[in-house]
Amino acid sequence: MKYKLLVIDVDGTLLNETGEITQHTRSAILKAQQMGLQVVLSSGRPSGGILPLARELELNNYKGFVIAYNGAQIIDMTDQSFLFDKHIDHALIPYLNKKAKKNGFSIFTYSDDVILTDSAFDVYIQHEADLNNMPICEVNDFPSAVDFDPCKCVLVSDDEAGLVELENHWKRKLAGTADVFRSEDYFLEVVPATVDKGNALALLMQMLGMERDEVMAIGDGVADVPMLQLAGLSVAMGNARNSVQACADTVTLPNSQEGVAVAIEKNILATMRPAEIPLDLLNARGKHALMGNLGIQYTYASETRVEATMPVDERTRQPFGILHGGATLALAETAAGLGSMLIVRPDEIVVGMQVSGNHISSAHEGDTVRAVATILHKGRSSHVWNVDIFTSTDRLVSSVRVMNSVMKKK
What we know:
The chain has helices at residues 10-14, 23-34, 47-56, 93-103, 123-132, 142-145, 160-173, 197-208, 225-230, 242-245, 259-267, 279-285, 290-293, 325-343, and strands at residues 5-9, 38-42, 65-68, 73-76, 81-85, 106-111, 114-117, 136-138, 153-156, 178-184, 187-192, 215-219, 233-236, 250-251, 297-301, 305-311, 348-359, 368-378, 382-390, 396-408. By secondary structure, it is of the alpha/beta class.
């Protein structure tokens, strides 16, 4: 598989115009992870505003990562430990606050799971709080309340020209101490020096031992440009401004049309070969599903043949030690289901429609049976599989027909 790491921006990219992850997008990301990719959510949001999205996409189950605060933090979702955590020197806060007040700008920062500000009624700060599902804690004296080293501070104003002028001034004055950029027309962000999404991604790639050609990145904003330029394949959203699209290798559909799902299906899922399917990962993922509860393990997969095994034990036998026919059918459906998933198009899903089996002989407790699924019919709307179940001595136990329905993702 060419790509091993998939990096996705959040707002304007992963989320649609109503701030949601669509089912189509979620399915594409889950399938990419099931096929062995590690996924990174990279955002200017605080960690508290990204972690719920990461858990929704099951990054914690697939060894994924979160890059928060535009690169100031890298979080391993397996145990939510910090791989990287950089902060602004607290001594800089009074100066930032003084400049904000002089220009009539609001200012805020993040403390644990709350937003600290002395301008609680600022509409942009309220929007930021709603976006990240974080309450606002209003303080009277901002510099005194910020008695810690924050990951970033944000100045807020409708005066775009004033923010641009201060941005240019601070880029010179704070060079080497902090970096400054506008993430929105009304936001001027101050972050630790050398912090951006590209540097954070480079550090993560170094930790994982990955090369540029193994990384695909998707984004829509100016803050995404450093990571887009670093990735082997960079994809700009259709809703990105022209200057961002010019920095990318290709452009997908807008976030309102599930551009992330389209990019994953086109550049990852559609290019995968069955030989690249990580069976060990699929087996591990099914540990707590029905197949795991029955002890089913995939052992081989191709476009026309899938094999799987299942022990005859207390989970799969009848009371007198004989393999249960229902467990046999579950084994057949498990093998045929994977086979259909391997051959459908990226924008399609598979749903079991019918299963019927002929039980020919018995298998006894202590044995391990083997399912061999071969495709009989590969239609546009349905697949038919024949699944033969054998004992460890190759005696035929059951012959099962499985029909799967092929449907378009909604």
